[in-house]
Amino acid sequence: MDKVVWNERLNIGVEVVDKAHAKLFQVVGNLIELVENEENYQKACKRGLAFLEDYTMKHFLEEEAYMRSVNYRGYDRHKEIHDTFRDQTLVSLKKSLELSDYSQIATERFLGVLLGWLTGHIMTEDQEITAEKSSVSAYSSFSQTETAAAVEAVGQAVKNVFGLKAELIDDHYDGVRREVA
User: Fold this and answer.
1) Which of 123, 90, 128 is nearest to 6 (CA)?
2) CA 25, 30, 34 angle in degrees (round to 5)?
3) From CA 173, how far away is CA 12, in angstroms rounded?
4) Tens digit of pLDDT for each residue in 41-80?
């Protein structure tokens, strides 16, 4: 897997949030390198994942506090996404890790899902927080090449983790949720 690096173009323009996102990418990247390069990574991986879990929960609280401070209209939905990740997704992933005794394949799946979720969440939900104040969509700053690369990366992650083929439904998505008729 390529080295995981934070791309500042994912910044939403809120320093505390952007720094936390960069730190989360750094921690996930470090864990990926650990799993790929160390024979006895399980113990260190357990500690790293515990730190990642704590840091993610701290970040969610900070992000939610910011959303409340600016009266973000999508706060309830966004908090529900955080809660679902914390209470269902993360619990399920951790259980799979524990049942496998932190096997390399289970750890790689965990990190792949985590990285995919984090990237997708930042590119969609988090970008909406500050895009609401602007008449220009946050997505308009991404080039076609960057969008294609993100689509390919997410598609590959879904294939690797779930064995499923992911397809882009709308390549003109502008970040605005619309009801399907």
Assistant:
1) 123
2) 150
3) 18
4) 787 778 777 888 888 899 999 999 999 999 999 999 999 9
